[in-house]
């Protein structure tokens, strides 16, 4: 059994960025067993210098989705709770896009495997521009 290790903000942000890519989401949709997909997610994080197993990635996404649903249900039921998480808006963008698309046609432009989910581009004025589909993931 793997030891419990807390996820840093950067690790969680990278995990969500990789997990939200269209290719990953499509692979998760069509796979009966998703271990292979989460191994790919884990490998992508490893390329960014973040050591997380496929099982840890799957568990973290599962927990983020559970937290999101609890908050979403609370908001819908008119609860006075102002409970939220740092990741609520991002998860709402991703999961709402999935629901709106039915079987999910597109939520984000896929990033090439060679690119980090934290890609920035410098325009001709010397200003950095975030190239992520979910701008909330930009620093």
UniProtKB/TrEMBL annotation:
Q: Which Gene3D superfamilies match?
A: Homeodomain-like
- Mention any Pfam family matching this sequence: Myb_DNA-bind_4
For the Myb/SANT-like DNA-binding domain, which residue ranges apply? 6-93
InterPro entries (UniProt xref): Myb_DNA-bind_4 (IPR044822)
The name this protein carries in UniProt is: Myb/SANT-like DNA-binding domain-containing protein
Q: State the organism named in the record.
A: Anabas testudineus (Climbing perch)
